[in-house]
Amino acid sequence: MQKNTPIINNIIYENFYTGISIGGYDVDRGGTINSTISQNILYQNDTKGLDGGQLLLQHDTKNNVIERNILTAGPSRIFIANYFSTNQENKLQKNVFHKEKEEKGVWIWKEEAYTSFPKFKKASESDEQSSYIDPRYQNENKYDFGLKKDSPARKILD
Question: Which of 53, 55, 102, 151 could form a disulfide with 147 if both were Cys (CB 3.0 to 4.6 A apart)?
Fold first, then answer.
């Protein structure tokens, strides 16, 4: 069981299965409690289409704070993959989900898939400041994930 673990200020991109994973993979193995995932860029992970998305919340995740991250979906289009209904009191706040032209996003929360960001926000109890927008990276083709001066994400992430 992981407790009070910070995962902060990482750039994680183009991994086969997922960007960041917390919790245990079944009821007998692991969990994550009172940890923080903050200020990370999760960019087009799940390259093999294994449904791990950018952020994978597994069994027994409790009281974790997931805040101020930017997530860009990969080929599976999954931002958050949460196939367990056992998570409790996880806080999602001030996250930016990258809205890409002509692409749809998928959020899986407590075994339910959402293609509507407002419905996902309601189900996950995400804060009002979390947004589905284009963060306007400097040059994502060259993996320059700095934000342009006019990025709407700046107001959310500060």
Answer: 151
Strand pairing report for 36-38 and 91-93:
unpaired
Separation of alpha carbons 53 and 81, rounded Å:
6
Number of domains observed in the structure of the chain: 1
Residues spanned by the domain of 128: 2-157
3-state SS, the chain, equals CEECCEEECCEEECCCCCCEEECECECCECCEECCEEECCEEECCCCCCCCCCCEEECECEECCEEECCEEECCCCCEEEECCCCCCECCEEECCEEECCCCCCCEEEECCEEECCHHHHHHHHCCCCCCEEECCCEEEHHHCEEEECCCCCHHHHHC
pLDDT digits (tens, 9 = 90+) for 72-124: 999 999 999 999 998 999 999 999 999 999 999 999 999 999 999 999 999 99
CB 72 within 8 A of CB 101: no
